Amino acid sequence: MRFKKRFSISGFIVLAIVGITLSAPLLSPYDPYGIDVGEPFLGPSWTHLMGTDDLGRDLFSRILYGGRITVLIAIAATIVALVIGTLWGMVAGVQRGWVDEILMRTADATMAIPQILFALVCVSAVGSSVISLPIIVGLLLSPTTARMARTAVVVELASDYVVAARATGLKKSRLIMTEVLPNIAPQLLVQLSINAAAAVMMEASLSFIGLGIQPPDASWGTLMLQGYGNLWNTNWYVFFPALVVTVTILAFNSYGERIRVSLDSRKSST
Amino acid sequence: MSTELKVIASASGISRIFRGGSNEVRALDDVSFSLYEGKTLALVGESGSGKTTAARILLGLDTPSAGSVEILGQTLGTLKHEELRLLRRQIQVVQQDPFSQLNRRHSVQRIIEGPLLAFNVGDKESRKKKVIELLEAVGLEKEHLRRRPHELSGGQCQRVAIARALALDPKIVVLDEAVSALDVSVRAQVLNLLRKLQQERGLTYFFITHDLGVAHYVADEIAVMFRGRIVERGTREDVFENSKHHYTIGLLASVPLANPQAVKSNNEQVQTLPSPAEGDACLYRTRCAVGMDRLDCKSTTLTLTKGTATHSWLCHSPQGS
Amino acid sequence: MKNSLIVKNLSISVPSAKGRVAVVDNVSFEIPAGKKIGMVGESGSGKSLTAYALMRLIKDPVSIDGGEIFLDGREILGLSSKEFRLLRGNEISMIYQDPMSALNPIMRVGQQIIESIQLHSPVSKSVARKTAIDLLASVGIPEPESRIDSYPFEMSGGMLQRSVIAIALSGEPKVLIADEATTALDVTTQDRVLTLIDKLAAERGLSVLLITHDLGVAAQFSDDIMVMYAGKLVENGSVDQIFSNPAHPYTKALLDSRCDYTIDVNKPIRSIAGQPPRPDNRPNGCVFSPRCAHAEPRCSVSVPPLTSSQGRLTACFRADELFQVGAVN
């Protein structure tokens, strides 16, 4: 019943995007690296749904494969952000005192630095790969997650049922795991969704300025960069990657918003 | 209290001072009380009188700034972490808000089972048996097991909270405004239930309430609190029929009775809003019709007057003197 | 006597899984000018929604399904919101349980009273300020000249409720609705605030509708009492009739289940079994019949109308019969 309430168009689109991109090898009509599948710069047609690129590669296939990379990086980054951010925030919220101060001031300081600048420094330090990118993006997203997790934990710890559980003699670690965590999980889910949108955005931005995934592999950001470079002779080349990035970000954001609203309404109805 | 009664817990001279910047709030100021086995002590007072702080200290959720608390022969504060945890088995709590004191994501079964899980009592089967037994003891049905708090009424939630409090067979139950949020008819049911459970299980109740009627009904001994101090203490008859402290008298006169013929006793409290008094002398003096202009009320530190074996008060000029 | 407020067949509904269900069901009553009426009921009885309807504060998804409300002879449910805005505050005012809901937390209390005064009458700011100080003094706030510049957070609960009363009275209304206005206050503060409302009502000839779950508050304050149960008005009579000689079994049971310091502590309280029905699960016939000790088969078939019995209005088939044998008093 609760699941039904959460089902929405945005949720469906999120699922569809993740499903389709992850099954790219099954769905792609052409080899994304095959330079002999068609003429360069062909416009969209029934044989090449999104046309072909400067080397004659099928753009639709490249977007599917690129999406797989982007979505995988986004998922990995989101998980990194969730794990680090939740731990970070929970430790601060549970310990309070000077531990809280240090952890939260660190979060504030990190959030004050422009993310893209931070990412630039990191990428130039460790290079960009499918391993380093999720970690860098995930690290970048973790302070906001930490902030949210801390607030949620502090609110929960002050609630009556926690007092009851503590009075019961429940151990603190168990209290956090069995009583508090299930209650902040929905809020974490909201953050997860917002983080996913931000991760797609960040990966695309990094690739767009050439610091992301390197050719011949392509992510949506790389494809946008290539399309942008060929803007003078095609317009669909940049249009399609930009479109999928926009739709994905919107879908993740509105899905998060939807969960948040349904949580708020449930809270106010009791 | 007669001497053959066994003291099961006691607080002696506890104070709790909260400091915020330059402000200092004495939530509790040299408060002493004892809980006797199988009996009920009601702590009565208005908001900010310190009664909830006293409950938190007894539950080990807060530490007094001064004074000591002894529960079942063990002194809080000297205990190791694990010893305190084991002691907590013996002292459980039911709070005011029927809904928020239950974890909204857990089922009734899981909620009542919680304390048993916390102490790894029994196996799955025996725990379930215990939960059903508790459920029946508080007047709920097996069909409620799978429900979640929001599917229950306020009275039912309060029964679940009581069942949870009894899960570990504690000696003492702290009832922190446990019936205050309930409707009249449901409150009566829960009060009757609490009384029945006390008789059946020999429970000791520490009943925190702002409602004099509830205190009158449940308590063997009543302590009236005013701004962190117990200003009067005694049996039901002492406090209600032979009140000595003017605050108690004012409090009683303020309670509206559901009887239009009840002639309101002369309410001695000052009708305008007086500024609160500070210091070690009587804190009620600015609201007290008797003590307002008396010099000793303003300047002399109060000491507890023991009128009878059961009745004591903290007042320079008690009623009838 | 002239009635300042007449409510006829008011029905209010909310959406539920079973479609729209009535939370206030065909309620009618009158408030004579200058009278203090207490409306008592447990949570979910529909008493607060009735008050909200009087202030036209019912908002989607709750809706008024029918009925008429006459304020000083004028039907108000049919008025445009612009027309009603002229009446709100001038003719009818309301105070709530939580004074903070009626105050702007970041605005000085005095400023809020002044604005309210200027909203209702075209006076200069300095005149309004003087009126505001007088109002604060009349609601018993000490040193009103300096308190007028306080912010809400600088005031205690009792003082805030007094300030809200001052705002409610700033338009010199004829009807004052107090919705659980003293519930959140300590008893000693409650006593003072009730005494204050009582005094102001007498001075200004106000009609007061006091909505409360506290039987004691209603008994001490009101001239007449209305008893609500599960969306129905079940009994309406003078304060003596209701509290000394109730005719409806619910009124009787409610009085029996109270716990004040005058009851016999050696016996269990006579509580009502079960709990009030939820709006989407109201029983057939008399809404109280499943919990009623005197219910007969007909009680669960048809709805007893609110009729005159024993000198007051009661919605019970057996009211006269039970009253005579002394079953309910």
What does this protein look like?
The complex is a heterotrimer of chains A (270), B (321) and C (329). Chain A is elongated and about 75 Å long. Chain A has a single domain, classed as MetI-like fold. Chain A is mainly alpha-helical and 270 residues long. Helix content of chain A is 76%, strand content 0%. Chain B has 321 residues and is α/β, with parallel strands linked by helices. Chain B contains 10 helices and 12 strands. The mean pLDDT of chain B is 89. With 329 residues, chain C is α/β, with parallel strands linked by helices. In chain C, 32% of the residues lie in helices and 24% in strands. Chain C has helices spanning 47-54, 81-87, 109-120, 125-138, 144-147, 157-169, 187-204, 215-221, 239-244, 249-256, 319-325; strands at 3-16, 19-32, 36-40, 63-71, 74-75, 92-95, 175-179, 207-212, 224-229, 232-238, 307-309, 312-314. In chain C, helix 3 packs parallel to helix 6 (157-169) and helix 4 packs across helix 6 (157-169). The model of chain C has no long low-confidence stretch (mean pLDDT 90). Chains in contact: A-B, B-C. The A-B interface holds A 159-161, 163-171, 174, 178-179, 182-183, 270 and B 59-61, 85-86, 88-89, 91-93, 95-97, 99-106, 114-115, 117-119, 150, 161, 164, 168, 174.
Keywords:
A: MetI-like fold; 11 helices; elongated; B: 321 residues; alpha/beta; eight-stranded mixed sheet; globular
**How many beta-strand runs of chain C?**
12
% residues in beta strands of chain A: under 5%
**SSE pattern of chain A, N- to C-terminal:** HHHHHHHHHHH
| Residues in helices of chain A, as a percent range | over 70%
- Helix-residue proportion of chain C: 25-40%
What's the main sheet of chain C like? 8 strands, mixed
Largest sheet of chain A: none
**Mean model confidence by pLDDT of chain A:** 85
Query: What is the averaged pLDDT score of chain C?
Result: 90
Q: Which sequence of SSEs, written as H and E, runs from N to C of chain C?
A: EEEHEEHEHHHHEHEHEEHHEEH
The number of helical segments of chain A is 11
Strand count of chain A: 0
Rg result of chain A: 22 Å
